Amino acid sequence: MRAGDVMTADVVTVGPEAWVGEIARLLLEHRISAVPVVDAAGRLVGIVSEGDLVRRAETGTLPRRAWWLDLLTDPAVEAREYVKTHGRRAADVMTRGVVTVGVDTPLEDVARLLERHRIKRVPVVRAGRVVGIVSRADLIRALAVRPIERRTAVVADDRTVREAVLAVLRAQPWWVGTYRQVTVVDGVAHLWGLVRSPAERDAMRVAAESVPGVRGVEDHLLDWRAWSSAE
Known about the structure:
It contains 11 helices and 7 strands.
């Protein structure tokens, strides 16, 4: 799936001259956490999120620093902070250099960007103009419909299913084939052998469950430490 498949196309935007109070009302009315800022030509120039409005003079939530930190802080940084906390227009408080994606960006890359930049949403642009926005909620909605697709009946013989399970396991960095085996009977994957941790046990089960044609998983795995101490 790609960004264009899950994005919200009806995006609420504001101009650079929009007042901060107006932006706050839009966030509340539309139950959104951010609004892209676009110029007269519709090009993206910034974004205003809830985080940009948390520290404000009007609400008495200005950041406070120890006096000695003020002595070490670059005056230019302090000036930018003042504009951010006292400015009244979108252009004053918005975050510039916005992280964006294209319509064809894979969801895997979208999720990676959200995680790397610690943001909750990312605008989708085409030729510099906003055509949508993908939020964490959109990714969750995409996840909600995936199990329906994955539960469709898959007819495959046990040997084919076993080979597919082993292929998935062998592709994982934590997989060690020694002392481990997989058998498949009537679509049920049986996991045998030794594991080094509960996490590896869970990982093997999850990997087997992800293979189309697997109707269930039976865990016959033994803890390596318990097995070695019994010898």
